[in-house]
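Chapter review. Work through the record for Ribosomal RNA small subunit methyltransferase G before attempting the end-of-chapter questions.
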Amino acid sequence: MDRLNSITKQFGLELSDKQIEQFSKYYDILVEWNKVMNLTAITEKEDVIIKHFADSLLLSKYKDLHENIDVIDVGTGAGFPGIPLKIAFPELNITLMDSLNKRLKFLDEVIDELGLQDIHTVHSRAEDGGREEMHREKYDLAVSRAVANLATLSEWCIPFVKPGGYFVSYKSNALPEEMRDGKKAIRILGGQVENIFNTNIPETNNQRSFVFVKKIANTNNKYPRKAGAAKKPIA
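Structure tokens for Ribosomal RNA small subunit methyltransferase G:
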């Protein structure tokens, strides 16, 4: 895990011995559970450190996360980026949302074994969770590394964000066509693209784009649409 610290130092984040130990334990639990369920295709330690841990933390290069804010990780999967962000920035209040209950059991064990506080899991599809009063427009920040186009991700995530907050999408790249369609959806959903940051994980050729969307107005109650509909363009 020294490799992780050498990478994160290059974007201004130094991890403590305790945090390094937590990341090491997280890796061990991930690999063990991955033997019996499909959490990730990436299991080699070096690859997990770069493609999951460092990548998740790269957001801190562009946003100050030393804050006591409410964060939701939509479609968290094996806990990325939510758990790495919680380890590195323990002051964050984090909700991990996923539609697959068995993944949440894995995440609950990680949270328990690592002794993390103010982080919990929610079993829900984004389309359903975004309509629930306890989650709708309750978060300062929504993040997602889910694999979907920006328009779809925006419909899943922006309803969770309170006006004045942000949705940040982790994209492998920001394609012009996807950005054009995404900006239209974002505007309808009450958001505005504020910044797009294109970068690489230090010491690698791994590309990452962060699309920062600021919530400037309440989302119309008809969004998010029911499951599957978000893949169709917003009218």
